[in-house]
Write a structure and sequence with these properties.
There is one protein chain. This protein is an alpha/beta fold. The protein has three domains: about 60 residues, no CATH class; about 260 residues, 3-Layer(aba) Sandwich (Aspartate Aminotransferase, domain 2); about 130 residues, Alpha-Beta Complex (Aspartate Aminotransferase, domain 1), CATH 3.90.1150. It is about 35% helix and about 10% strand. The strands form three sheets. Strands 1-7-6-5-4-2-3 form a seven-stranded mixed sheet, sandwiched between helices. The protein has a three-stranded antiparallel sheet with strand order 10-12-11, with helices on one face. A two-stranded antiparallel sheet has the order 8-9. α9 links the parallel β4 and β5. It is globular, with a radius of gyration of 26 Å. The structure holds pyridoxal-5'-phosphate. Pyridoxal-5'-phosphate (PLP) binds next to α6.
């Protein structure tokens, strides 16, 4: 028990050793000559002194305090928390991929460039867009890149009035944020009662000041925009471009393609749909694809294939450089492995299973949770809190109580169209047994809300830390460890 909630510094006992390194080839004497004097430490570093067993127990315990898709079900809507197959890691760990440097001679990097190129081509195939850059590091980074391309397109045509981007009110928060960072003004249009783009509001918003529209289809409510062809026609007719937020592409894989719907620019999150780790804000990968007319604006550096040799080239027409070198290569290796492991035929079943799983959970719970939009959903759906509104148990309480049952909370209070949003995305990887367990736990929490609301409102009860004071944590964060028992 001693190891729980103990910091490694607090286990330290002077003289304990947890390592046995080979003899240091850079003995102190040579270090003195290798490094400038002012960079050398005058005092020993205050590192914890612990045995190997202590440190193994410490980190094993720390790892068990975290929740991951490898510990339990993780239905976090809009995040596509699917399992990342181990073969991805095995491939990304090959020394030929890990022990390279982007500045080594290109003749020694041909295999790496080929993986970039083939991954980009597969994404083109999947999405129906002409070319992809794999340079962006995240979905939001891809959005910014895509919007810079949109801007460059209008500027090249000397169409400088186009300073506004339309975003529906159900959009992911990064959409208006990226539009703002790219220097556009956002025009928000309200959805219809059934959660889709309102064609009349769209028509009213279109003008010669509109640079484009940002959409995702299926949208953030998990609903397919049935009018997409008409939306594309209207936006193009008004001189705008269509941006597709392809962060969550699960439902579409092998079924329909954004390029065929009329989209001109899109990003894809490899760390959602293509089974690469999300990694706490990075390192992700947000490839951007564009239609033929926009290829010239893709960022530098570009990987160019000449029959069987790859080169790196810069184009003067590009929006510039948006990352160092060519993006997060090892995540590209993971996505490439995922694509090759599944193959074209099986990729198709990802969409079918993701949609089936979401609809199964939705239908199994809609008698106890309020389903504001009842139609067939795609890869995810949204409840608006409990159906029985007589208790004061809210979405936050339900999310916290689920933690006691070993389930990660769904996305809550997003989208902001409903007061008590609970957004559930089971993904394609879960078995019926896991979904049934989740359904049973959700039903149990709904029952507890009636029988013992106080217990639900004070949850979680079994996690390493209880309900957190998120406001204080954000206002007065403690970001460094201060060890009172040691000097300095
Ligand atoms: C996750 C997500 C994003 C942002 O992706 P990041 O990699 O987190 O920047 C954008 N749009 C949608 C719909 C998303 O789900």
């Amino acid at each position: 028990m001693k190891y729980y909630n103990t910091l490694i510094f607090e286990l330290s006992k002077s003289g304990r050793i947890g390592y046995s390194f080979p003899k240091n080839p850079y003995a102190k004497k040579s270090l003195d000559t290798l490094l400038p004097k002012e960079l050398l430490r005058s005092e020993e570093a205050a590192l914890p002194e612990v045995s190997e067993l202590d440190i193994v127990r410490h980190y094993t315990n720390v790892s068990q305090k975290n929740f991951g898709v490898e510990t339990g079900f993780y239905p976090l809507g809009s995040c596509t928390m699917k399992y990342n197959p181990k073969i991805n890691e095995e491939m990304a760990g090959l020394p030929g991929f890990t022990e390279i440097h982007p500045l080594q001679p290109l003749s020694t990097l041909q295999g790496v460039l080929r993986i970039y190129d083939e991954t980009a081509r597969m994404l083109s195939d999947i999405s129906g867009l002409a070319e992809f850059t794999l340079n962006p590091f995240a979905g939001a980074h891809g959005e910014l890149t895509g919007l810079m391309i949109m801007k460059a397109y209008h500027e090249k045509r000397n169409d400088l009035k186009r300073t506004k981007v339309i975003v529906p009110d159900s959009a992911h928060g990064t959409n208006p944020a990226s539009a703002t960072v790219a220097g556009f003004e956002t025009i928000v249009i309200a959805s219809t009662a059934d959660g889709r783009v309102n064609l009349e509001s769209l028509k009213a918003a279109l003008s010669d000041e509109i640079a484009g529209i940002m959409l995702t289809n299926p949208n953030t409510l998990g609903l397919f925009e049935r009018d997409i062809v008409e939306i594309a026609r209207l936006v193009h007719q008004a001189g705008g471009l269509l941006y597709y937020d392809g962060a969550n592409l699960n439902a579409l894989l092998g079924q329909v393609r954004p390029g065929d719907m009329g989209f001109d620019i899109m990003h894809i999150n490899l760390h959602k749909t293509f089974s690469t780790p999300h990694g706490g804000g990075g390192p992700g990968s947000g490839p951007v694809g564009v239609a033929k007319a926009l290829v010239e604006f893709l960022p530098n550096p570009r990987i160019v294939k000449h029959s069987d040799y790859y080169t790196i080239e810069d184009s003067g027409k590009a929006i510039g450089q948006i990352s160092h070198f060519y993006g997060n290569f090892l995540n590209v290796v993971r996505a490439y492995t995922f694509l090759l492991t599944l193959g074209k035929e099986n990729l198709k079943s990802v969409g079918g299973l993701a949609v089936l799983n979401a609809n199964y959970v939705k239908e199994s719970l809609k008698d106890v949770y309020e389903l504001p939009i009842g139609s067939f959903c795609m890869h995810e759906f949204v409840f608006n809190g409990l159906k029985n509104k007589s208790t004061d148990v809210h979405t936050l309480d339900i999310a916290k109580r689920l933690l006691d049952y070993g389930v990660h909370a769904p996305t809550i209070y997003f989208p902001m169209l409903f007061e008590q949003s609970i957004m559930i995305e089971p993904t394609e990887v879960e078995s019926k047994e896991t979904l049934d367990h989740f359904i049973a736990m959700m039903r149990q929490v709904a029952q507890e809300a009636l029988d013992n609301p106080e217990m639900v409102k004070t949850a979680p009860h079994t996690t390493p830390v209880r309900r957190l004071d998120e406001v204080t944590a954000a206002r007065t964060p403690i970001l460094t460890y201060k060890d009172a028992t040691r000097h300095g």
